[in-house]
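re: ur question from earlier - yeah i can do the single chain one, its not a big deal. heres the input i used so u can compare w yours
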Amino acid sequence: MRNNHEIDYRIFGEEMQYVEVELDPQETAVAEAGSFMMMDDGVQMETIFGDGNQQNQGLMGKLFSAGKRLLTGESLFMTTYTNIGQGKKRVSFASPYPGKIIPLDLQALGGKVTCQKDAFLCAAKGVAIGIEFQKKLGTGLFGGEGFIMQKLEGDGMAFVHAGGHVMQRELQPGEVLKIDTGCVVAFTRSIDYDIQFVGGIKNTLFGGEGVFFATLRGPGTVWIQTLPISRLAGRILAYGTYKRKEEGSILGGIGNMIDGDGW
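and the output i got, formated as tokens:
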């Protein structure tokens, strides 16, 4: 039997997805501020501190829970959506950038999933959304995106978002997968996570992929994304900041006209 609210859901869309959560009377979903898309009449919104799992917390516990969220780049507040009407009601949450929404049944995944710090979208009320420090020294000093992560705990449904295409990989006991730290979306509690140095001076100077990557050792499940938001943002920033080499030249103007940029 689940301790969390049981919610039904449907995921719509391809590149820009949204998830529609169906709530029975008095059922509640919790979501990040800013992810809300639409809802039926009869759903009540409420802003709360922290992760929405605070039934037995005092004021200091709630403040501590909310403060930890700042370290993962999230807001101090979350929003709950409760069906206070009669019959089933629906509320929808949209993905923040192109990619995929991943449904996670925490009960079937061992009660805990660790994910990248900005991955969480929404969940059933009762799922705890906390912070996970990678305790190993190498991870802490050099992990970058992989050092401070979110952890989702409970036995309900949670939804995370990732960029581009998402692949789910099942690792066997002792099997090791090496991944760019930004491409790790989530992994189950049985996965051993660490950061490894890429040896060789040529790799360090000319590799173009950074000098560290994540290593994940099975058994367990790993979710991997093809387009980390940091990589997407970096490309957009570079494109908007620097003039392309061909701009300002005759050939550059002709080339831009041919590929459609000149009109």
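The CA atoms of residues 131 and 150 lie 5 Å apart. not sure if urs matches, ping me
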